[in-house]
Structure formats: structure tokens, C-alpha cells
Amino acid sequence: MQKIEVDVAVLGAGTAGLVARRNAAKAGASTMMIDPGPLGTTCARVGCMPSKLLVAAADAAHLAQHAEAFGVHAQVEINDREVMERVRAKRDFFVSFVLQSVDDIKESGAFLSGRARFLDAHTLAVEDAEGKTIAEVKAKSFVIATGSSSFVPPPYRGLSKKVLQFNDDVFEWETLPESVLVVGTGVIALELGQSLHRLGVRTTLVGIQGLLGPLSDPKMLKEAHSIFTDELDLHSDFQLDSIQEVEDGVEIKFTDPDGSKHEGKYQYVLMAAGRSPNLSSLDLEKTGIPLHERGIPPWDKNTGQVGDSHVFLAGDVNGFRPLLHEAADEGRIVGVNAAHFPDVMVSPRQTMLAIVFTDPQIALVGESWKEMDCTKNRVGTVSYWKQGRARVMGQNKGMVRIYGEAHTGLLLGAEMIGPRVEHTAHLLAWAIQKKMTVQEALTMPFYHPVIEEGIRTALRDLEHQLQLSRKPGAACEEFGPGD
Asked: Is residue 118 within a helix (H) or strand (E), and if so which, with residue range?
């Protein structure tokens, strides 16, 4: 058994862990990275990249099937085997770059393949696949970047692996199934659910509390429901009556809020009902760190530090913002802080930016509606139904709601659904991070005709609302007008 002493031990070789190790080493610390595999980061292997490959195939099929709106008529044949071959081939291409990075770390002797657990506050046992201890690692500080795993609600835990699938499994399918029940209406559920539907899979999505992706603004949720229920078999506030495994899949019965009953049989259940942090196997209690009910220790989002301890969290494991660019930012923060512990530096976080690659796309920028104080803020709105460039492309669906501070005119955030909002969301995120006012944003150039003109319309509406007095009894979702 190896006995190893380093400055910083990094648990997890995903995006956050890789960036943390690199920054700790750059700061002069000796490091040891520990991961049981499979390697390749969640994003490249089973997350953002393969899912966008499936989305791209679905978008191509959908555009071809609906080209008659432009006077273009085509016969479309979807070869699902070829679709999945391309998904896996391109996925493996992206993963190969990550694996090369890990190979470089292995060659330096700073990598252990195994599962880590704490023996005491400064010592880890590293075990192989059979549970045999292969090393003990002592470190001055620790970065925990072990990621997260799919959460399975209790009613579905009796289903066998034959029918219960996760997003990890989808990209290993050689052909597409006949039917899929998607449990969840979050980001992963919406992207995969719409893609499977557009590729010819009979698909039903079920969720709770009327939620869709990251949206919280009541008007945005209403708009999103109108758009997606027009295309998809979507039930975002269902009550499960029963689900049971049958010979050729599952049989489900459920009820909608209006009392309507539904039942159906599906080949697979695709579980996309949220994720849980990978912490339970680490024996964190042996470090003396207090744990919350869900097993997540209290930590500081601006330092990554757990309390005032020598342990730091980064990436999906902390549940804060499970996005690749956020994981990389957290890796940078905790890598430096773990290397310099106990001298810990506070780092301001980037402006929130989340994008859902549905059609139309959804985006959340800065502060969301649920974080707003409606007595102090205002909202500007634009609909894409009449927006010029959107109508030219035949993609005139959706709306944008931009939020501003009443007494300063500062841009605060936005919720968006519409064509190519992945681009307009970036513009707003940069403007918010630069602390621009609505008036300053309106001095920026806008070409014609482009989708970006839509947010200019919303900014003009927000500028107008900022000048008005708040109406007595106005609903919060209006944020005014005025004060």
C-alpha cells in the first residue's frame, strides 16, 4: 500500500476537479487527484455535449419536416441507427481531449484510480474496485469535486434497470426506442424529451408544480407552457396514480390538475427528476465538519470553503449552479484557496447564465423573477410573435422579460424563451456583469434585421416602466409600473 503526502488532494477528475488541480499546482502546491472512473467529465461524456448532438439531429429533422412553410418540400427519413452512431462518435471525440489531460496527470504521478473516503481530518483511504485499500493520502487541504448522480423518486425505485434509464444511458442506445416516459420537466428532461419526440419516439413528459426548466416568472411559465404543450405531450403538474413494470416496459396511470385521467405503456422510463451530490461514500463526518440534512456541509460560494476548515467544494457536488462554466470558475477559486490555505481569498462570482437548448431556447440571466423584490424593481417585456427577424425565419415564438432596479436603472436579470436566445442571453449577462444601466445598454449598436433587436424593444419598455409610478395593488409579476 502506498503512503502519500501532498499539499492538496483533489477528489474527482471532472471539470471542477481538473481546473482545481491545475490552479493549485500553478500556485506551487503538490497535488494528488483521485477518481474511480469512468473518466471524461460529465459534460463531455453524458451531459452537455452528447445531448447537444442529439438536439442537433432533432433540429435537422424538424426543420426538414416543416420546410414547406418556405415553399420547400422534402421527404424526410430518420435513420435512428445513423443518428446514434454520430452522437457516440462525436461524443468520443470530445471525451478524448479530457482523457488526454488525465493521462498527462497520470504520467506525472499525481493521479490515483480508486474511490476515496476520509479516515480522519487529514487522511484519505483510496480503495480499488474490490474495496481493497491501495493507498493512504495525507493532505493539508482537500478539494471535493465528486459531482452528482441522478435522483430517483421513491415510486420509481422498484423499476428494473431494463426499463429505468438515465441520461447517461441514452447515448449508448444503438437505435431509438418506440416510446419513452420522461420523468421531470427540468433542463435535461426538456432537451432530451423534445429531441426524442422530433426523432420519432412517442414521448410523454411528466413533472410537478408546473415547473419548466429554470423559469420562475409566472408570465414566462405561462408562455413556455403554451409553446411546449402545443408540440409535446407535456404534463408539468401531474399526480402519479400508479406505475408498474410489465413485460414490454412500464404502464403508468396519472391525473392532471383538471381531473383528467391518463394512462399509457412505454418501453423506457427516462429519469430526469434532479440530481443528488456524490458525498455519502466519503465518510465526511470523520473530518469533524458539520453536515446538513442532505449531507452537504455548509460552504461559502465565494471561496468554496466549508466553514473555516481545510475542505473545499467545487462543481455539481455543491448543487449551487450545476453548469460547466460555473464548475470551471469554482475549480479556479478553490484550487487557489486550497493551495494557500489558511489564507483564503474571496472571489466575486460571475453573473448567472443558464441556457436550455430546446426549440425555442430558454435562458436565465442574472437575478431570476423569484429573487426579485417587486416593490423595488421593474420589468420590460417583448414578444417574439411580431419580431421581424424571428418572423423571417419562421421562429416567431416566445418572449423576454428583463428586470431593472427602480431607483438606479441598473440591469438585474432576465428570463427568456425564444429563437437563439443563447446569443442574446450572453449580451445581457455581459451588460449585467459590467453593471450597465438600461439607458447605457440602449446606447449600444443594434443591427437590422437581427434577433438582438428583440431585447432592445424589451429594454425600451423597461426604460419606460422605470419612469412610471407603481399602481396600487399591482401584481408582483408586473413589477410595477413604477414605484
From this structure: strand 115-120
